[in-house]
Write a structure and sequence with these properties.
The chain is built from one helix and eight strands, in the order αββββββββ. It has an eight-stranded antiparallel barrel with strand order 1-2-3-4-5-6-7-8. The model has no long low-confidence stretch (mean pLDDT 83).
Length: 135
């Protein structure tokens, strides 16, 4: 057998071995990751009273969020950019501060809660907290 034919056979065998290995790895491995990225987009949530927050109950449905804190009830529009970032805007702002959008970044997801950072408008003001899903 000449050298060119041996080299060609070697390359074919190598490609076949790589392709077989690739197919085996991706068809035999089962991912244990369960995608629950939508579980925080609808439902009833709570931010407990703490250092930077008063107790707040949040109801999310479609593109609306109703926030209840104390005797106040506010309605906000919610727009999800992706599963980890959304924007809130007051539908009927009562103050100049409420006219600015709130940009919320989900930092860490737990079983029934997530840690977040909220930035108001285009300022440097940010706050961190945790939201718990109750229903």
């Amino acid at each position: 057998m000449n050298l060119k034919l041996q080299l060609k056979n070697y390359r074919l065998f190598t490609y076949w071995a790589l392709l077989t290995t690739y197919c085996f790895l991706f068809t035999s491995c089962k991912s244990e990751f369960k995608d629950e990225s939508n579980k925080f987009k609808i439902g009833v949530f709570e931010i407990p009273a703490g250092k930077d927050f008063v107790k707040e109950t949040i109801i999310r449905k479609d593109s609306i969020q109703i926030s209840k804190h104390g005797l106040h009830v506010d309605t906000l529009s919610i727009k999800w950019k992706n599963n980890f970032f959304y924007t809130l805007k007051y539908i009927n702002p009562k103050t100049d501060l409420q006219k600015d959008p709130m940009f919320v970044q989900i930092n860490e997801i737990h079983e029934d809660s997530y840690d977040f950072t909220v930035k108001i408008g285009f300022s440097n003001f940010t706050k961190k907290g945790t939201i718990y899903k109750t229903k």
